[in-house]
Amino acid sequence: MALHVPRALTAAIVSFALAQPALAHEQAGVAGGLVSGLLHPVTGIDHLIAMVAVGIWGAQLGAPAIWILPITFPLVMAVGGVLGVLHVPLPMPEVMIAVSAVILGVAVAARLRLPFPAAALVVAIFAIFHGHAHGAELPRAANALAYGVGFVTATGLLHLFGIAIGALTRWPFGERVIQGLGAGIAGVGCYFLAQGLGAVA
Amino acid sequence: MGVLEFREVRPGAFVGRWSIEPSIGASRVDLRMPPHCFLRLPEMNCGEKGLVGPITISNLGSNMSVVLIKVIPIEGEPRSYTISTANPVVSVLGTGAPTLEAWVELAKTYVNYGIDHILLGADHLLFVLGLIWIVGGGWRLVKTITAFTIGHSASLAAAAFGLIGVPERPLNACIALSIAFIGVEIVKQQRGETGLTARYPWIVAFTFGLVHGIGFAGALAGLGLERRLLPAALLFFNVGVEIGQLAFVLLVLALIWAHRRLDAVVPRWGEAVPAYLIGSVSMFWFFGRLARVFAAI
Amino acid sequence: MKLKPVRVLMAVAILLTGTSAADAHVVAARLGDFYMGASHPLTDLQDVVLWIATGVLAGTLGASKGRWLIPVFPIGLLVGLSLAPVFGTVSTQLADATMMLAIGMLLAAAAQVPTLVLCAIAFAVAVIRGAANGAELGPETDRLLFAAGLACVGYGVVTLTMALTVVFKRTSDSVTSWRAIAVRALGGWIGAIGLMMASLVLAS
Fold it and tell me: Which of A39, B32, B263, C126 is deepest in the core (most CB within 10 A)?
């Protein structure tokens, strides 16, 4: 059951994105900024799965992580976004984003229980890389505030979506589903990693 | 003020000219005829459908407030339509039976007009506010507001059909006085006396609703409506007034609820302030309007 | 029963946003300058985000602190509006972003802001936004009516937001209850939006 939901969501998002390509790329102003901000985090599959994985992992880790992550994650990501907008270079962003998907996927699949500060550090580093990528690709014409609102909302919702999936850990069957999902995320991450490394080499 | 005359020369074809030029110059009026009409003054061609649909002037403002459009068809009575800042769109229904499109257009125009009218009628809104203040929320308020609605709908209809005629200026003074009455009732209630409004709010609301309704009719009177359209226009106008009034009541109730939640109610020493404020404003209006009554005599 | 006023509020909000979706200048032509003042901020994302952030912050601190904003916020708007000619057309974007970041961080940290600081923050937001709203006024607008409309809508939005927040996050809730977390997460989001916006303004 849980597998159908993300597929349906992805389908909905993709159809929405396809239906309004002009909006996402051409239109300036508030509406344009809002739409491109909303779509930006969900159109790249590597970003999307990593965001969801963070949510799931946070839910698996339980008590402090499950509530500290939603509060701080968008902020840390926005810090990365600032670096991206100001064109502060980070090493190998594409590879790092793919690596983050792999590591987070593995962590979910293996139910890796790191102590909270270590987990937070891992997530923070990845969040900065993701935010950086989004900031660097930012459309100049868009309304700054509208883009920010759309971007943060989309990221936050993906994160919440991950937490909602992670809530399945309460049942043994749900635990299996989540581990499968984690393995899937790691697999997709590997694909992007290979692509990224190929591009580098 | 400008007057634009369209005379039908062949079915669907009109010759238009400004019989009174607007102050900003005829060429600067942004006149839009229904989309199927081709307009290049002095000629206008609407084809088989004839002149049916919305006429809009979008750039009315402080320097030009009203344009009157007269349509003189080959057959039938000449009709005139008023386009004003408050009502920048009018619907022309043509001589034949009105189509569905025309009805929708009429509904849009008059519902909007009703909403505008109530939202701009500070005196009506102040009266409703006073009623809410006395009655409080809940079932009693629903009954009171319903009574007010029935009252003003009845007299609005009666006045619009010409069954009753009340001169506008004394009426406006009466409306101001009705609000002062509510202010007095609030003070009475705060002193622990049971006023008429507190005991029978619906009777007071209905009676003053009658007075306010005649006031609403004054707004419709200046529009040069065709008689056959009057019932429909009246209905839509009334719907608009109710929508505006309901929005206002909901907003006031929401704010009262918010104040209770925040424990930010009027302190004891200031309890009478709103009532006296309502009273002073309404008496200010009353004397101003009374002066206009005597000025007219 | 408790949900009822919330539903009413939502209906009002939908009604208000529905009518304000049209350009504020169209409203002015139809309903005059009072309603233009009342609808102008509702069509501006900067106002909507900042005002709601301010209301939520005040609401989380509890009714006894928050209710000071009922007079402070509209007065701030009026002060800002009267200062608008001084500021001219200077962009307030950076100031907006800074305020968003500050309020967002305070919310996310669930900081116990003293009443005086809260009032100062709200006053600052109101002055900035009042000036920004005044900057777009044409010479033919009746400033008195516009100011009255602006103050009314400022009072309404902040009061309703505070009350809704007080109802949503009760003071008896523990720090880790989902309601408290939801409000803090909202703060994190607002802070992030402010940060993004600041960087975009600086970069452009």
Answer: C126
> Cβ contact (<8 Å) for B258 and C8?
no
- Separation of alpha carbons A78 and A65, rounded Å: 19
Q: Cβ separation of A145 and C46 shorter than 8 Å?
A: yes
pLDDT digits (tens, 9 = 90+) for C11-65: 444 444 444 333 444 555 556 788 888 888 888 888 888 999 999 999 888 888 8
Nearest to B89 by CA among B65, B113, B73: B113
- pLDDT in tens for each of the 201 residues of chain A? 344 444 555 555 444 444 443 333 344 566 777 777 777 777 777 778 788 888 888 777 777 777 787 788 888 888 888 888 777 777 777 777 778 888 888 887 777 777 778 888 888 888 888 888 877 776 665 677 787 888 888 888 888 888 888 777 777 777 777 778 878 888 887 877 777 777 655
Match 């003003």 to its residue by tokens.
B152
Cβ contact A–B (≥3 pairs, < 8 Å): no
Task: Please name the member of B247, B255, B261 whose beta carbon is closest to the beta carbon of C166.
Answer: B261
CA distance to partner chain B, nearest, from residue C102 (Å): 24
| Interface touch C160/B62, C-beta < 8 Å | no
Spatial separation of the C-alpha atoms in residues B131 and B151, rounded to whole Å: 14
ipTM of this predicted structure: 0.79
Amino acid at C193: I
Strands B2-10 and B66-72: parallel
Q: Which residues of B touch C (CB under 8 A)?
A: 60-62, 85-86, 88, 112, 116, 119-120, 247, 250-251, 253-255, 257-259, 261-264
Let me know how long chain A is.
201
Token code pair at residue B148 = 């007010």
CB B67 within 8 A of CB B119: no
- Cα–Cα distance measured from residue A162 to residue C114, given in angstroms and rounded to the nearest whole number: 36
Residue type, A102: V
The alpha carbon torsion through C20, C22, C26, C27 (nearest 10 deg) reads -10
Helix (H) or strand (E) holding B176: helix B168-190
Tally: H helices and E strands in chain B: 8, 9
Touching status, chains C and B (3+ beta-carbon pairs under 8 Å): yes
C45, A146: Cβ pair inside 8 Å?
A: yes
Using a CB–CB cutoff of 8 Å, tell me whether C63 touches chain B. yes
Helix%, strand%, coil% for chain C, nearest 5: 80, 0, 20
Q: For chain B, what percentages of helix, strand and coil (3-state, to nearest 5) are there?
A: 60, 15, 25
Closest CA to A148 of B106, C101, B176: C101
**Joined tokens for residue A93:** 């962003």
Rounded Cα distance, B262 and C66, in Å: 7
The string of pLDDT tens digits covering residues C139-156 is 777 888 889 989 999 999
Rounded to whole angstroms, how far apart are CA atoms A57 and A65? 9
Q: Of A150, A141, A14, A13, nearest to A78 (Cα)?
A: A150
DSSP label of C204: -
**Nearest residue to C170 (alpha-carbon basis) of C178, C179, C181, C159:** C179
Task: Answer positive or negative: Cα dihedral of A38, A40, A44, A46.
Answer: negative
Do B166 and B214 meet the contact criterion of CB atoms below 8 Å apart? Answer: yes
- H/E stretch holding B67 reads strand B66-72
For chain B, the chains sharing at least 3 beta-carbon pairs closer than 8 angstroms are: C
